[in-house]
Design brief:
By secondary structure, this protein is of the alpha+beta class. The protein has 3 domains: 152 residues, no CATH class; 66 residues; 156 residues, Heat Shock Protein 90 (2-Layer Sandwich), CATH 3.30.565. The protein contains 14 helices and 7 strands. A 5-stranded mixed sheet has the order 2-4-5-7-6, with helices on one face. A two-stranded antiparallel ribbon has the order 1-3. Strand 6 and strand 7 form a beta hairpin. Helix 2 runs parallel beside helix 4. The longest helix is centred in the middle third of the chain and has 78 residues.
Length: 447
């Protein structure tokens, strides 16, 4: 069953590590913001200390700025290394920023300093860059710094003659306002980021699906053209073999006559395959789709595959299927036949099992099981990708690719796994309503 499963191609470095690129870009953003913070803090200290003649411990504050500059130079060196930048490293960088800000505020009035709300900037940046666990660490450090600064700090003497202190009620309200801002800001930004990531994921899936559908349309046009071209040589071969069957040299030799009859049967089979391709491509739209019963549909599939593969042993398990009328979908027939072909090629000489069941009244599961070696992790990871096959032959791997897209078109899915008792299984899961005639589908939903 794993014969047509693709092997992973060499990964494109531009696609293989998006998180690595994001980590580097985020660290680069923090470095740029930190340079702005250094310039802004330096300008503020100079303006307040020199321009406004407010006494500040400028030597200690400039020392903290020196620590921030040294850490930023270290961050520049770190960003040039080949190793990816982890979330933990980004969290440490933001905690350093929070620590330096806390130190500057401690030296310049603590909670009395209006720049205390720069903590919100750290929380906002962390909400954008970090996962929730690391975000909580930054939020906790900011809130802890705020609370400590309300109790311990060097007073900021705007007027040395009349020192002022804030009342406890004011400080309590200030703390409550700060907590509300931190909580609401982080929740809002985290939710926006989650919505953006979900949108990007959905857009990527839509682009992938559109590319696959374009690919399938091209394949359908190619198959339809090839089927038209094959019609003439098959008809010619059929006429020639018919003439040979009535010629005396061949009619008198039983072995030759049997071989000619076998060739005629194979040509008829080729014609049936070509007809099926044309019907699937929409070349025979004048014919209404056939209707059948679900158990008969599954039994007919198994019987047709057994007759085409008499050397393979196939066991059918379809007890308990509802006796409902369905559309005899040629594409679905081809999907199941392709799964059986893959299983026979992957596990030659071992018994196969076709299991059809309805786990609930709205779902049909069709599973093909073998007793072969099973799937490798690489095969499971790249399940159903086009033009990638473990057989090492050009053009292989397309059957599963088409099967996955047929299942998706019908609203279902195709899944592969290794069985606990050995061997492999590929399960096609479909909504039963997708196979029912329109009136029957309405009746099922109404029930």
């Amino acid at each position: 069953m794993n014969a047509d499963f693709p092997l992973p191609p060499p990964l494109d470095p531009a696609v293989a590590a998006p998180e690595r690129r994001a980590g580097r870009a985020n660290l680069r953003q923090l470095i740029e913001l930190r340079w702005l913070a250094v310039v802004g803090q330096l300008a503020t200290v100079l303006v307040v200390h020199v321009g406004l003649a407010i006494v500040l411990p400028w030597a200690e504050m400039l020392s903290l700025l020196g620590i921030l500059v040294a850490f930023n130079l270290f961050s520049l060196w770190r960003n040039r290394l080949a190793q990816p930048v982890s979330q933990f490293e980004l969290c440490i960088a933001l905690l350093v920023d929070v620590g330096v800000l806390t130190g500057q505020l401690y030296l310049a009035g603590g909670s009395d300093n209006p720049f205390i709300y720069l903590y919100l900037l750290q929380v906002a940046v962390a909400s954008v860059l970090l996962r929730p666990a690391y975000l909580m660490a930054v939020m906790l450090s900011a809130v802890t710094g705020f609370v400590l600064l309300t109790q311990w700090h060097r007073p900021l003497l705007l007027d040395p003659a009349t020192p002022t202190t804030l009342s406890p009620n004011y400080l309590g309200g200030l703390l409550l306002c700060f907590l509300l801002n931190v909580g609401l800001l982080s929740v809002f930004i985290v939710r926006i980021n989650r919505n953006l990531r979900q949108r990007d994921t959905e857009l990527a899936e839509l682009r992938q699906r559109a590319a696959e559908e374009i690919h399938i349309v091209r394949m359908g046009l190619l198959a339809s053209g090839a089927a038209h071209e094959l019609g003439t040589p098959l008809a010619t071969l059929s006429v020639i073999l018919g003439d040979w069957a009535h010629m005396a040299p061949f009619a008198g030799e039983p072995e030759l006559r049997e071989e000619i009859e076998e060739m005629q049967r194979q040509i008829l089979r080729c014609k049936a395959i070509v007809t099926g391709i044309l019907m699937s491509a929409g070349e025979m739209r004048g014919e209404a789709p056939g209707l059948t019963r679900l158990p008969a549909f599954i039994e007919g599939l198994a019987a047709a595959w057994r007759s085409a593969h008499p050397q393979a042993g196939l066991t059918l398990q379809c007890d308990g299927l509802p006796d409902v009328e369905i559309i005899s979908d040629s594409a679905l027939q081809q999907v199941i036949a392709n799964l059986l072909d893959n299983a026979a090629e992957a596990a030659p000489g071992t018994p196969l099992t076709l299991v059809a069941a309805c786990p609930d009244e709205d779902t049909l599961d069709v599973s093909v099981r073998d007793e072969g070696p099973g799937f490798t992790p690489e095969m499971l990871e790249r399940f159903g990708n086009p033009y990638q096959s473990s057989k090492g032959q050009p053009g292989r791997g397309m059957g599963l690719f088409l099967s996955v897209n047929v299942a998706r078109t019908l609203g279902g899915r195709l899944e592969a796994r290794n069985r606990d008792e050995g061997g492999a299984a590929v399960t096609l899961t479909l909504p039963l309503a997708a196979l029912l005639p329109r009136q029957s589908s309405t009746d099922v939903r109404s029930r």
